[in-house]
# Entry
Amino acid sequence: MEQLSNFTSLGVGGPARKIVHAHTEEELIEFVKAADKSGEQVLILGGGSNLLISDSGFAGTVIRVESKGNALDYDACSGGMIEVSAGEDWDKFVSRVRVFDRKKSEVVTFTNEMCNFTYRNSIFKEEFGRYVVLTVSFQLRKGEQSLPISYAELANYLSVNLGDKATVVAVRAAVLELRGRKGMLWNTKDEIRSAGSFFINPILSKEIADKLPADAPRWPQSDGKIKTSAAWLMEHAGVTKGDKLAGAQISSKHVLALTNPGSATADDLIELAKMARAKVFEKFGIKLQAEVQLVGLDLN
# Structure
């Protein structure tokens, strides 16, 4: 049986009872239909960059999405439209998404608004497992300038003021550089493997946010709630860069990245996450939620 560690950026994960490789949209749909018809558990596996699979592996069917290709249409007035297969890397802005609806057993299309994209959330998380992404279309604006820069760290790096614009090439390079410095990017040359940010930034009621220290980051949300920094909470609860538990380690670059320096197991990583989470809860009464998809594991 193939080890799922071969398909994840963390490099951990036990054997798959069954794994199939979908090279086309048609194959992907047929594999999903067949598994659903037989009552099999299904794990859709793309790039494996936001995933922590247990050491015992997965007892159902793993469908590895390997569809490739894209189509580009350009109009001098409205800009470009690009359609990208699910197996490709996505580095643009979503316009609409074609999915296979497992509940209805049919292909449907969502507009950007229908996807309900919010911070680390969407309809695909709200109804987790129901939809299998087939292709994503991106509406590309004509021009070389970015949208107004709204992140202070990015603005400082680019030497512009908040609200200013920069070239899209410069913005992309800056984002990759900043995330790379924090250990949030991974490639096959990296010696230490991670899944990027392990926890999401908590969104709190105003009453809970008011109890945080005055210097805690606060980002007001449209619904009156307050978003704060998971990294700040961890650091001020005693979690430090480089902390180790068995084979797992908090990144030396950023506390939000839990890493596998080479010999970590999934159990090591989940226990390290539990330790960090427990410290934050003890100090602030806030339970951090995983951004990484957990398969056969939980934080409780």
Remarks:
- DSSP finds seven helices and 17 strands in the chain.
- Residues 165 and 267 are 44 Å apart (CA to CA).
- The chain has four domains: 4-65, 70-140, 152-181, 193-295.
- The mean pLDDT is 86.
